Amino acid sequence: MTALHTAIAILLVVLLILVPKVEPVIALVIGSLYLGIAAGLGFEGTIETIVAGFGDIMAEVGLLIGFGVLLGSLLNSMGALQKLVEKLLRILGPGKLPYALAGALSAVFPSIYVDVQLVLAAPLAKRAAPRMGRYGLPMMGGALSAGILVGYVFVVPGLGTLAVAGLLHVPLSTMLVYGFALGPLAALLTTFLFGRLLRRGFWNPETDEVPEEPDDAENGGAAGSSGGAAGGGGEPVIKDGAVATAAATSTTSATGEPDSHRPLPPLYLSLLPIIVPLLLIATGAIADAAGVKSDLLTFLGNPAFALFAGLVGAYALARWVHTGERVDRAMTEGFHSTGQILLVTGVGGSLGAVIGKTGLDKVLSDMFSADAGMSTVVTILLVWLVAALLHLAIGSIGVAAIAAAGIIAPIMGDLAVPPAVLALAIGSGSLFALQVNSNFFWMFQPLLGVTTRGALKALTFVTSLASVVSLVLVIAVSFVV
Questions:
Q1: Which Pfam families match (predicted)?
Q2: Rounded distance, CA 127 to CA 409, Å?
Q3: For residues 470 and 475, what is the distance between their CA atoms, to the nearest angstrom?
Q4: Which domain holds residue 170?
């Protein structure tokens, strides 16, 4: 009954949002209440789990979201992302930009913390979208989904990759070779296939995108960050990717006076507040994976500190370039956006916590047979299925991958499949259908400026497609290793 109640809870949340257009925060709490009570947690236990889940997810990503959104708002005020997009468009052209983004995110910058990557990359994708025509936004959103999440589970030092490799005792050097070959290829193929579907009418801008509001110069761009009331149908809206408004990119204030008292910095200097945190996080993760023990590296590589360092750098650079009033306005826009994202993200964590209390992983472990006579393909499919079902229920790719690895590890010796291939199959399955019980989903929606329906297409469908595409690639790898 646990699996049935979980499925009903997830379906209830989706239907409440899509049909009567209930606010996502309310729908998520209703789904959490139903599941907790139906699964036997009791009234008090359900409420305690909801509160604890909210607190746990805030402890994990609250500062990351806050620092990242403020960092993005300051960088946007200096035109950094606009310059980068224009440079990429000049070099690659609109048609190749999504592939460059998906490839870079999955191979060059494997997602150590997917929430951090989303906050930093979403404004870039959103700003480039209008230059690519009618389907620019979903194409960039799909590339973002595939690049970030495929890198997270396949490419070292993605945390999902490191966790699964450790639990299955797969050498990181082996995972590095297999993951680097399979991950970017899966991301690029997924982006290509999603683009073909968009051309066949899969996307409807009228229902899948949040309409842009006209800029309000009298309010210094405040109309662009109007919160959840805009966009209609209960869809939370944060203008221009939650960290940017048209007013924020302007160098002229509403009074006609220049906002910048110095020329805007060159592109390489503007991007340092993004590049430095990513390098710090990557260095810390690689040092940890290599067994290097250093308190200093651990401190510098902590994502919260790394993003805070980037925020301080962006703030100092903005104060050097802009007037104090302009910097204050950029920070205010960031604070406004942060509050809305944190609330929805936290409630999404509450649903995941309730699901975690139901013990669904034990139910799934009973369905898996360690029959040594199973073929390689059947074994890979079962491993993929376990990880996929865990992700559907738990709502966290990382937790699903770790739980699946914990189920498979004790019986791994009885399976006639190399451990590295099992690790790839777990990563592939844990990608499947990232949806409404994930905090990433509720961050993705306002940051990209899409409705819940649009997020189900550009994120849930894309991760499902990436999962199936990578499954085919994993099966192909199993025949040559």
A1: GntP_permease
A2: 44
A3: 9
A4: 57-191+202-342
